[in-house]
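Assemble and predict.
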Amino acid sequence: MVLEIIFLVLGIVALISIGYRWRRDNNKLDLFLIIVMVGILTPTILSVFNLTPLLVQDVFFKIYLGIFVVTLALQFLLYLKEVKKIYSLPIIIGFYMGISVAITNQSMVWTIYAAIASIFLISILIREGLKNKNGYIFGLGIFFIFFSMSNAFGSEIFGQIMNILAITCLLTGLAGLFDKYLLINKEEKNKIRNIWIAKILGEK
Amino acid sequence: MIVEISEFLSRMVYPLEITVIGLMAIFTIRKVIIDKHKTGNINWVRMIIFGVFLSFFIQSLLGFLNSFLNLSLPQFFSTMRDSYLTLGGIAIGSIVTLGIMLVTFSNRWESLYYAPAFLYAGLIIMVVSVTGFDFSWHVSYIEYGALIGLAFLYFTAFRLKDNAALGLAIFFTLAFSTIILELPLINSLLNIGYLIFGLLFVFGRFRVFKEEVA
């Protein structure tokens, strides 16, 4: 319960800072991420406020929520890569996943799809983050690594710890710490240093 | 006398259909190749129309083999499309899918370009793997998809003043009315009518709108 509350608080902090970014830059990627975060935080909110008994089938609710989150995350990725022609693909896959879960009452197909989609999503986000020296995108990639691990392993405490690690990485990315300490742009740094040296020499 | 004429016509429709639709497919792909040589790019709208005619040709060929020549082919090559996964069923599903794709390409709805293809591929995978070969899904897709596709083809044709979309819409309206109507003589006449119309369309004789879409 304590871990869940920590995750929820950190999640809300992340949500507020993404919301702030969205208002400032009006970037649709932030809006996507807000919806994804709301989807991710919903089961924790239900659990913390003891609202899960209201749901008739808790397992299926979580699966449908998972389908929604993965669909949005993939949509987010396609938007990031500007692959307009296959924008409809995640929605159609999500639609058929929902139908297949409803028909078969089994989550096997969904689990396989979620695993493949997560690997795809994580690898592209981290690659894009490293390539463009963008700490926000890189942090998002790390966030999805830990978040996927929390869902993949059954142990509840391990899952909660992974969730907290995930949200911490996202907050680190949002705070710009990855940009500052990990993804240092050497060219930019050298340029600033040269200007700085030139200034000193000029003054002398 | 009328019964004999309608029987003769309904029997002759099969060889006529494969000849005419085969010709339509050949002329369309020829135009695609000429365009490719001239501009260096593939004209995807024409390519989709070729796909439609090719699927139609496969469907007609199966009808010819099964009903005209009375060959006993494996189940997959039968013309039944209600209870089994058959090549004929897939061909009709492809016609519907390509018809809707033509609408998305003509209207330049880029984010929906491949949506009908994804939807159809997903449907086939789901029918085969999840529903236990329940083909009622496939039949519903064909029926509703055909209606939606036709409505959008007419919409596109009048919105963009596009001869290709209007030609295909009329062609399919005639073709589908032969399935819906149960009047043998009228059916046979409609069959011949849509084939003649198809030829006019492919040879560029059907030009309702004078200005071509860019």
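Residues 2-25 of chain A form the longest helix (24 residues).
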